[in-house]
Amino acid sequence: MKKVICGESLQEKMLESINLLCGTVKKTLGPVGCNVLIDHSNFSPFITNDGVTIAKNIESDDEVVGAILEIIKEASIKTNEVVGDGTTTTLVLLESLYVQSLEFIKKGMSPILLKRKLDEGLEIVLKEIENLKRKGSVKDLESIAAISAGDKNLGHLAYQVLKKVKRKEAITIKESLEDKTFVNYLKGYFCKTTLASSYFLNLTQTLSFKKARVLLMNSPLVDIESISFLLNDIIEKKEDLIIVASYFDERLVEEIISFNIVNDLHVCLLKIEDYGMHIYEILKDLQSLTNAVIVEQDQFITSRNIGFAESIVITEKDMKIDFKLNEDIKKYLRKIKKEINNMESDLEKEFYEKRIAMFLNGTAQIHLGAPTKTECLEKRMRLEDALCALSVASKGILVGGGISFLKVADKLEQKDAFLKLWSIALGKVFEQILKNAGVDYVSMRKELEENAFEQIYNIFTNEWENVQITSVIDPFLVAKQALINATSIAGMLLSTTSLIINEYKDVAGKESEYNNW
Q1: Could you tell me which residues are beta bridge partners of residue 32?
Q2: 283-331 residue pLDDT tens
Q3: Who contacts 28 (Cβ-Cβ below 8 Å, separation ≥6)?
Q4: CA-CA distance, 347 to 345, in Å (whole number)?
Q5: Confidence of residue 412 (pLDDT cuts 50, 70, 90)
Q6: CB under 8 Å to 324, separation ≥6 — which residues?
């Protein structure tokens, strides 16, 4: 059974949803924004000021509010997915745009026409913001990291690690077993693998091979006869052999173990731990590093399939190949980079970027230390925000703290009613940051306007700074995505006049309150 909610009843529920989500998240905005304690059924409660994490965890027992909440969440989640930051700014803008626009609808304006006006205003705002963009210096990037992390030390850590490995996707954050934070930089190509038998480790933690032969199979290996010529050859030359395949027959594994014992050799059987086409892409990486030719299904194995590696280290969980970057590998990397340009999935891009990083600058593991797991989780989210902000800052920066928005708002204020609506929304970001800091935003805005935005107030240091050398910086792309996504969701909500929802009953069999609508 379906129910329809429309008109003023729907508008009230939309306002309730916006107040619940935006009202909760916006209190975390700025360098001294508050934290939120989140309980979770799957793990211990934790504390965070990460906007997207808070937004994802806000729910309602009211099915109408719950449905609307999911739409509003999309604005913040989309911003986070594209640029990794700006969630809270998006929701502050969304709340103001919706609440103000609703007054126009109540006066009889067409929602579709209003949405069009919002989009036209967005184009003007984006052009004005673009004009304020500039290239960031090293000092600017460090400031961006510190602001995003809400901590100078974490910001500095994020900047130093990203500076070395170049790609955010090449950085893994783990909980440190100690109370201190440290970084491990890793060189070489790593892939997760599983040994066909624990015997191959031979009671050691790692297996190290020098000048080993490599066979790569995009197919199962079930018959030892199919590699008999290869086994005879390594007996003669006393060489090691690494075989990577999609599956190994149990009997074949036993025969290889016996072969190793009898001949005092190492033939190691590995399976790549990944899924779908990722496995084949990793096989192609290994092919570029070893000059092996991948064996496909039902293909006869010949000597031309065999590759060679100078150094391989195998553990219970992964395999590492050391290599020297040559022209063939560079050519292969150029091909991978072209494939990235045609991808729409962020997850696929991340997978490809991480592989490129292993070939070029290596990867990094940040081990975060903290007295408690709760604090460690909170630090991890702030560090991730800093890394995301840094990775998009290369596209340009803006004076932060809502100041750039405020400068644009000042230009729009004297124009038509719809641009005035935008002017008010842009000013809300600065207003919320100062509210969260306990600062009088009215007098502060007046002072900024009187000095023509040449001097700005840094809440983080509690000092006034020259706008040309200020450390209050935001990535341009974060501001742009926040504006675009806030406008998109506000427009969709404003142009939605009816909601069709499933009719629910509670445990006592009482019908939902919406049955009476």
Answers
A1: none
A2: 999 999 999 999 998 889 988 999 999 999 999 889 999 999 999 999 9
A3: 34, 35, 36, 49, 50, 51, 54, 88, 436
A4: 5
A5: confident
A6: 310
Do 307 and 211 meet the contact criterion of CB atoms below 8 Å apart?
Answer: no
How far separated are the first and last CA of the chain, in Å rounded?
14
Neighbours of 374 (CB within 10 A): 15
Percentage, residues of the chain above pLDDT 70: 95
> Which residue, among 57, 99, 76, 202, has the nearest Cα to 486 in the 3D structure?
76
Indicate the SS3 state at residue 504: coil
Cα(360)–Cα(354) distance, rounded to whole angstroms? 10
Segment holding 151, helix H or strand E: none
Which two tokens mark 181?
């934070």
Cβ contact 277:197 at 8 Å: no
Q: How many whole angstroms separate alpha carbon 187 and alpha carbon 358?
A: 7
Which one-letter amino acid corresponds to residue 457? Answer: Y
Indicate the SS3 state at residue 415. Answer: coil
- Please state the pTM of the whole predicted model: 0.70
Q: What is the residue whose two structure tokens read 């000021």?
A: 49
